[in-house]
Task: inverse folding
């Protein structure tokens, strides 16, 4: 068991910051000490195996990305990051836990699929990982599986209001899953877009020869997101289930979430870095087929409609509670399946490596406070998904997942620079960050330091999660 | 310098809880240690001067009551608690810091008054104390004083929209104070009731022979609070000043605050225990003159109108951010100034001793989580009023203001029981709490333990506050 | 050609009232004259064939009931009023025009069905009638039919968000119908309840042995109406189609409509007498199977939830624009199909005879003004559905559909009293109205007078309607 | 007594239009006849004294301008139109009734002032006129006067939330006036701007050398209007008084009014042509002192803030109910009192002549329907201010105030063109209208026809008004 002391840094949590040393004993945090680590005359720094000097830097709980899709099968291909490449890239970027999605497509058995996902991930991950379970076309067997999975530490279930015959659940099916969640305490995650609406517009656009990537965005208007968000909220109101809306991108959807929250409902929302920085006009509308790089759903929203500023505001006002990536990368040869028909472009953007940095840039530009940054990327994800205490906090007994972040460092994002995801392009090419992930520890082991990856596939363990600790 | 170890307890902060020991060295927290306090083979528990066993109990940062009025002159008399009696009672109840109000009445000089309040408090307080400054009838000198007082650690200024010729500032005066606050970073606190409206209704009621204490409540309808709250919010929107609305009691006022917050404004609200538990019908409407005990402003609200549940909800949804007491006690012989004319009853309720307990009962009944309790009574008050790091947190370097709270204890509130405030009645007579303040430390000194008050007048020091740490 | 003079009455329209005589020449209004009918020295009263003395009474345009279902096939039976019995009852109650629904069930051809409905009504109606077209499971042929039907004077199309496989259209299908309406100017009418949600709850209740009529109401919660209303509004916002929500009963659905209207959308709502007077507790919850009398959808709402007062308020504020009956009567032997399973009870209440009276009672009780009464029952229905000028107004050239209403008369509703509908019970048994329909003219013919029905089947003609005249 | 027949026109009211002839007998409408005026074989056209051919034109009730200030004393000068010049100009523009304001400044006696205004107007007016009474600094005598004035036919009272020491009433004073209005049925009209706020900003701007006309607008931000509007609404909610907000210009104020109306309150709002067409940037911000032409309060609003489109929308949605002018003209030599200090520029714009035309242009551009135009300029003003039946409608017994409006005509506004107001400039110079006021009758007399003014000072009579007929 290695002992480590991180000295001289500023420990930041969601309510404030303090100059303190962090003592790690084996895989866990042992203590938060005064700078200098002298306690009652005992100089603990002399006794440790290794000292990490964090002077002038921030010491924060490792990032938790609660929304990733490694190796996800989609439209005849697979997301290009394996659990190994994806978690390695995550570690590079200061993320020490992911919560990925085990997928039960329509017609499949949930528990069988759950096991299949375990098999994929086992022994591959560089950092710790948990699972949400995707349930499609909710059936009685699905409801039974929900109880069993909660016992397994899978306490959140994602449903889809889009993708008919593949992932979609009818409203009545959603209702039954929500009733189960209200009963067993699980959290319902919702892909809130009106699938029937969108499918119809897609058909019309394609029939009309409007096949460029831009039309992916056009086919999924904000109204279709707002509508589904409202519908999910009403179903949650009726069933008393807690609801977590994934990848919120429309300001009107935020307004629905805010209203539900003011009304006392346990309704939450996540946004993603792409909705904070990228737009329909600038990225999806890029010349030729280049826009395909940024085809994801919900889509990038129109700059002219003013969604982006509102997303940042919602992060400040806590109308949105956290930022995940919805990491679902595809290479350009995969994206090219949709040449001539935007609806065949695999949906997804790869960001798992850059989330911590991209959000930190919001601290630099004054969009969010330093404390809110930590809350958004680590504390709330841990609480929301039942890991707090073990993850998301620097306190005795917690896993020693720690990031030393240098506000005087610099990070240039892009291929040939920071890029470690298994993608042949970067959706974030050219982004510059006024800060740097210096050192990353996962359960006490240094996995990134000095520009080197020091971790290994298989270090990461499955995280059995409790029920959400964020409910009121 | 005494060293103290609090062992075996559950340390609770606003995001979660952890089993940990707390080491105190002199006046400050030294470290948060693993249970057992063995670090790298060193058993720290052997080296300390005293050990406090908190097994099975909660260890939390000392309560901060951000709204008290010790010895406040009002209507020809004075609030009955001195800084000594009031802070002693506070300590008994687990509150280790108060922020009182230095009062500049219309026509007085702010800085002179500020000095006068320092003189009253100096050497008298059992626990630490800070000051907000009340500014009445804002004048150019007031604006100048704001800059000087911020430099002195008085970073919040309370204005009144009621009490003409005594405390009220006109809207244009409020505007100038807000402009100054937007400039120097101070926080504007607002008594938000429409004074002209209320004064007129009071006159009508008294002329009509409606003079019982109940009519105090009737004379201050929710509309007069909602209106003033909205007005203050609009002035804050225009000036870009942060705004903190005190003693919110009407659900419609909460709705105004919630809307402003969803809109991205730095607008905050506090409520008080009386609005969570007491009502117009049950208390103010008590037979004869007994209702006088609960005459305070904003008034107790009507049960029939449904405000109370909404106050609890707003605490859950963070539409209200903290709970203070507005402690302003008067004895019954003082209250009797208003026999035959409710408008002459000194306004105020004494609660400084019971806030921590009364809010804990909300944890017992499931209204709020344990973490939210700590946030409401200590963490957010510290952040809101620029003390976090020193106060409001258990972390190395913070003041060792600590409460050991026993969830298996019991507290019966009332005269001859827990009552230590200088009042001849208790507004909370008969309230039973399923928990107990066992031990209280103020800057490392045990001031309450084993049912004994072990502190002393003069232990408490003035807290120089920073600007609010809660702004977005 | 008969000439008729209605003398001495108070002519009421939606903006005011005037003492005036009404001259009818043949089937049309000829002129609005001064009381006494002397013009430039010519006494017109001497020249007419008949004089109707309306002294002390109101003279108003005949009622227009824009939502009836005569002989509608439903759940294996038919609504019990034929076009003959139903329109005769309507005439008795002061209604001179109905707009019924031609029904295309899923799988049927719209135009064929439209013709079938014409065949049913032809030669049977005692008063004039128009058709809306119901489109189920919208198909390309439906869209084509919409253009043809608009040309035929059928300018409104009703869609269903409930009743899967029978009437329901998917959201994408609704979208296409709305696009067509936005293009050709038709009005989309919507049955706004979430069918998938309701079907699931119905199954759960029945499985649980909760089969009494009360559970019909329980199975269709306000959330399922509010949700569908919001969804329809968003689809209308996207397509720019005008939207008319039928039989609104939930106050939260009204709030959605009000918000859309404040936002400038052409969104309208109708309520029905049952939602203004009857409740879940008092009627649906009647002992045994009696509640079946009041099984209709949307259902009677809970008194405790406070919908009813809000419906009246919405009529005052114009958040709802008109009152129709949704007349769809079934006899008790038909209702008994649902003994032991509320979901098999034919849905519908018969009110076509009483709407004018029931609304007038709202004038008596002060809920609405006299002018608003006329607006709700005649003027707005005419404008909304493209008949104004011919119907809904007393002006030269308009059809002489006129009601003489006596505010000093009295009407006792119920079997053996006023009841002329083909039902063996009255949903309104025991209601007393402080007013009376004295005389009714349809296109210049007296069809009701002196307590006698003087009309005949076949007098009524099909009304070819223009596009809505109510759009902004 | 002259008899007149207006033939061949389209009579338009607020719900629709009809081809009809209008027969006038003396000062009143006698009948609405079929085109051709043949009734039961009698050709009435042969018997009349004069025939006005309105073929192809609209025949509408004469315009009612419910907000004018003839000869109003303001800031040491007087509005430049006398009752004679102002009402003559009004007639030219199709307005046949004005409601002017009798002014009681602070310290004056209301009834004395009321008599003084009668004296000013008597024998001078070319068209009929009524009075609202302005009450400043409401006193007990004011409340008594309210009862007496209602009996005199002055049923609306205007209060000010701005202009301290001159016109302003404190909130408590407003409260008492509203209580009186709730009691006697009068309508409270409100100038809703926060005077204390604005006065402070004015002082700051002037002290800062920002003295150009543009700063008049800057000194009166939308927040100060929204705030006062909300405050007035809350006072009205508490007192149950009906409330009419004058010259609404901020979209946020409209939102407050809309919310109150959706909530069932009798709250109304008027806007003015200037807020529909002119802006802060384009007019107030004109180079040099030219912006002074458009100094009025509330001020022209910022184009960038997007108020103007919302005003049109609010006219469509009935969130605003009518359009008045707030006609208060000053010549440039009067405006020049404010050279070097915008706060000394007399406030007011002259529009009484152009309102009917300017609103008609909204019909041309599709902003409002033809029927809504008539409603906004004549029907609703009549109903709102208790004149309907006599004014605002073409029906037997109504005053024969009639305008023949030619949609194929054209009107060029400006000096040397249509201008008849006593002003040396036109605020509307260069506006082109695709329509024309051809003929105007006031109580049966042709006052404008063939481009000639045929009326006379003294023809106009005082209109004793009833209580508002628009309340729900």
Result:
């Amino acid at each position: 068991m290695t002992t480590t002391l991180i000295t001289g840094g500023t420990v930041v949590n969601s309510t404030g910051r303090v100059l303190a040393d962090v003592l790690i004993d084996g895989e866990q945090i042992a203590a938060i000490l005064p700078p200098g680590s002298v306690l009652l005359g005992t100089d603990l720094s002399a006794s440790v195996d290794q000292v990490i000097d964090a002077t002038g830097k921030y010491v924060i709980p490792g990032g938790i990305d609660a929304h990733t899709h490694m190796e996800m099968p989609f439209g005849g291909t697979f997301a290009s990051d394996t659990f190994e490449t994806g978690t390695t890239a995550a570690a590079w970027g200061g993320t020490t836990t992911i919560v990925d999605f085990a997928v039960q497509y329509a017609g499949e058995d949930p528990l069988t699929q759950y096991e299949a996902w375990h098999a994929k991930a086992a022994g591959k991950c560089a950092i710790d990982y948990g699972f949400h379970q995707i349930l499609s076309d909710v059936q009685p067997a699905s409801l039974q599986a929900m109880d069993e999975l909660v016992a397994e530490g899978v306490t959140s279930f994602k449903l889809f209001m889009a993708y008919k015959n593949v992932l979609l659940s009818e409203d009545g099916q959603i209702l039954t899953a929500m009733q189960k969640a209200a009963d067993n305490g699980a959290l319902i995650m919702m892909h809130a877009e009106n699938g029937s609406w969108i499918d119809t517009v897609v058909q019309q656009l394609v029939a009309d020869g409007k096949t460029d990537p831009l039309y992916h965005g056009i086919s999924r208007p904000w109204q279709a997101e707002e509508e589904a968000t409202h519908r999910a909220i009403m179903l949650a109101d009726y069933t008393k289930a807690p609801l977590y809306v994934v990848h919120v991108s429309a300001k009107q959807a935020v307004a629905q979430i805010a209203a539900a929250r003011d009304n006392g409902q346990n309704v939450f929302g996540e946004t993603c870095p792409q909705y904070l920085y990228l737009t329909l006009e600038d990225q999806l509308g890029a010349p030729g087929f280049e826009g395909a790089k940024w085809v994801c759903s919900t889509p990038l929203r129109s700059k002219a409609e003013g969604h982006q500023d509102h997303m940042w505001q919602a992060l400040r006002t806590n109308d949105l509670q956290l930022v995940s990536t919805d990491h679902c990368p595809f290479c350009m040869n995969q994206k090219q399946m949709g040449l001539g028909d935007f609806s065949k472009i695999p949906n997804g953007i790869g960001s798992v490596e850059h989330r911590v940095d991209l959000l930190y840039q919001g601290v630099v530009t004054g969009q969010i406070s330093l404390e809110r940054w930590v809350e958004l990327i680590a504390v709330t994800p841990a609480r929301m998904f039942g890991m707090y205490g073990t993850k998301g906090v620097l306190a005795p007994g917690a896993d020693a997942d720690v990031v030393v972040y240098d506000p005087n460092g610099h990070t240039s994002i892009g291929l040939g620079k920071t890029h470690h995801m298994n993608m042949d392009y970067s959706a974030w090419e050219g982004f510059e960050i006024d800060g740097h992930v210096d050192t990353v520890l996962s359960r006490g082991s240094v996995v990134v330091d000095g520009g080197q990856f020091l971790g290994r596939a298989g270090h990461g363990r499955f995280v059995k999660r409790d029920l959400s600790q964020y409910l009121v």
